[in-house]
Amino acid sequence: MDVDNIFTVEDVGSKKKSKKEFYTVLTCEGDIYLPPIVEFNKGYLRSLMLGRKKFTHCSEVKVIKVPHLEGLRVSDILQFARRSFNVDQFLPEFSYDKKPNRDWLCNLVNTAVEEKFKNFISEQRKKREQKIIAHKNLAVDALPEFVNIFKKSTEVFTSRGKSYFVTRNYVPVLSKKRQVEFENKQKQEEERHNVFNDKIKSIEEEIQKYKSKEGENDYNREILSKLFEMQVIDGDGNLIKSEEKSS
């Protein structure tokens, strides 16, 4: 074993003592592109030094600014990177489900597969634009000739004129607060309608009861009139005794 090539703990301790100093010498002097220092743990450092983890040189990194959109979250970028290359060989390992730093990850992926990554970002932007156009009803129906005229036009205006509302298929989009107010108002109207219907039903039931009672009273009147004609009862409705009948 060549003693001159042996790397000992004393060699490390004599030069760098703290984690921050170790991080600085690797990035600034060693030109190693590392994640933020909060994600720079002992396990990741040991894996780098033993060759279990791969790294990229700072001078080779292709920096990119990725917009914060739906479809471009850290989990989405990780899924894309794992489909494109073995990104896990570059990532630190955590004892819990933690995602790597977004900016560091984007630069790493862009360095490895630049064209694919830019196409992926462009696709996600188009999906987002299509979703906004559909949600806010921003699409304008027109013949291809009119579309080409407006796209080729070099005139630019900073304010919206009447033509903005003429060409747009305007459908009012309520804010969340207005939507909640509108829904609450609808519920109140439905409750009032239900209460009104219940009152009508109760009135109809009372009318039916009254009609049934009227029918019973008419029937009783007919019976009483017949009994009166037969001299079974008198005008006050009292029974006539047999002696009174004979007299």
Summarize the structure.
The chain is an all-alpha fold and 247 residues long.
Question: Can you characterise this structure?
Answer:
With 247 residues, this protein is mainly alpha-helical. Helices cover 59% and strands 2% of the residues. It is built from ten helices and two strands, in the order ααβαβααααααα. It has helices spanning 9-15, 19-29, 42-50, 74-84, 102-112, 114-136, 144-152, 162-167, 176-229, 242-246; strands at residues 32-33, 56-57. Strands 1-2 form a two-stranded antiparallel ribbon. The longest helix is centred in the C-terminal third of the chain and has 54 residues, at 176-229. The termini are far apart.
Low-confidence stretches: none
Q: Which sheet architecture does the biggest sheet show?
A: 2 strands, antiparallel
Q: Helical segment tally?
A: 10
Q: How much of the sequence is in beta strands?
A: under 5%
> What integer value in Å does the Rg equal?
44 Å
Shape: elongated
The helix content, as a percent range, equals 55-70%
Topology (SSEs and partners):
Layout: H1 9-15, H2 19-29, E1 32-33, H3 42-50, E2 56-57, H4 74-84, H5 102-112, H6 114-136, H7 144-152, H8 162-167, H9 176-229, H10 242-246
Antiparallel strand pairs: 1-2
